[in-house]
């Protein structure tokens, strides 16, 4: 397999904060020419068997996936896991603990939004959550668009849901060490998701990559929906510097909200080890 394989190894279904069911995503990936696919819902692996079955029946190769929320230096960092055993008990327990605080956080967010005149946000967000255990800021954003407070979800994040804004509630997610070890002890590879999105200084970013590597992390998303072409180049350099494999994924959430469609990203830059080469034995092959 080459770095030009159309692999899309990052997207979300209604099980977390996407708007399409796993089967709809599999069909969309297939229609867009994806050859190897992974569904990476936030903090949940409960529909991996469903996603794999849908993908394989459509002629797609499949890797198990997840995106774990981690707290690192007072920011939220996302760690994608690929190619693990989705029935692994320690992984499932860790994810259950990580999901645990979301309900309380959502109530606090709703309380803060009420103070700036936005009533009923908890119930409103819950209506958009396909899986109440995974109620997220994205569901609040959809409610605020539906109720006319903002025109689109990015505007909601900018005005209400990011640090320093009225609806933002600080949250303690998993540790970097635990997230990496849940993935690796379940047989998968841990990957730093969309590194250009964090607001770290260069020293802090160096600490993230070195600690990640020290805990057994294996890859970095180089080509992802929120990176610019210049960031593909700079994180290709980071991958080489830290001896990490490279991943590629759209981070598709919704036909109405996502900038990047499934399967439409450019290829990885040359001279990198694609993460799917290291996971060749973990791929669940297409049925025909
Ligand atoms: P949560 O896990 O509840 O903190 O929500 C995080 C999710 O919000 C991410 O996975 C993205 O899907 C979404 N998100 C974060 N920042 C933005 C943004 N600026 N615009 C749109 N969506 C965002
Ligand atoms: Mn998301
Ligand atoms: Mn993410
Ligand atoms: Mn994501």
Mean pLDDT: 97
Beginning-to-end CA distance, first to last residue: 18 Å
Rough outline: globular
- Number of helical segments? 11
In terms of DSSP E residues, the strand content is 5-15%
Question: What kind of sheet is the major sheet?
Answer: 5 strands, mixed
Distinct small molecules: adenosine monophosphate, manganese (II) ion
**Helix and strand composition category:** alpha/beta
User: What's the arrangement of strands in the largest beta sheet?
Assistant: 4-5-6-7-8
Alpha carbon gyration radius: 18 Å
How many strands in all?
Answer: 8
Instruction: Give me the oligomer status.
Output: single chain
Helicity range: 25-40%
Written as H for each helix and E for each strand, in order along the chain, the element string is EHEHEEEHHHHHHEHEHEH
Q: Would you identify the regions where 5 or more consecutive residues have pLDDT less than 50?
A: none
């Amino acid at each position: 397999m080459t770095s030009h394989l159309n692999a899309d190894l990052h997207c979300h279904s209604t099980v977390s904060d996407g708007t399409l069911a796993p089967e709809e995503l599999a069909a969309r990936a297939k229609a867009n020419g994806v050859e190897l696919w992974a569904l990476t819902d936030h903090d949940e692996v409960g529909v991996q068997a469903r996603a794999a079955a849908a993908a394989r029946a459509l002629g797609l190769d499949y890797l198990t996936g997840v995106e774990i929320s981690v707290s690192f230096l007072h920011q939220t960092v996302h760690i994608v896991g690929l190619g693990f055993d989705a029935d692994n008990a320690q992984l499932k327990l860790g994810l259950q603990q990580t999901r645990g605080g979301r309900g309380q956080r959502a109530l606090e967010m709703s309380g803060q939004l009420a103070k700036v005149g936005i009533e009923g946000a908890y119930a409103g967000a819950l209506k958009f959550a396909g899986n109440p255990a995974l109620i997220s800021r994205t569901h609040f954003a959809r409610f605020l668009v539906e109720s006319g407070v903002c025109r689109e979800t990015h505007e909601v994040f900018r005005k209400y849901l990011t640090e320093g804004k009225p609806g933002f509630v600080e949250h303690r997610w998993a540790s970097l060490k635990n997230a990496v070890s849940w993935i690796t002890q379940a047989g998968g590879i841990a990957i730093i998701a969309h590194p250009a999105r964090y607001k770290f200084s260069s020293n802090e970013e160096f600490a993230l990559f070195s600690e990640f590597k020290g805990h057994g992390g294996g890859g970095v998303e180089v080509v992802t929906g929120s990176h610019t072409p210049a960031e593909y180049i700079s994180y290709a350099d980071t991958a080489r510097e830290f001896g990490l494999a490279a991943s590629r994924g759209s981070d598709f959430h919704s036909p109405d909200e996502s900038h990047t469609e499934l399967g439409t990203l450019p290829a990885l830059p040359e001279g990198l080890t694609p993460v799917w080469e290291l996971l060749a034995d973990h791929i669940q092959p297409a049925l025909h």
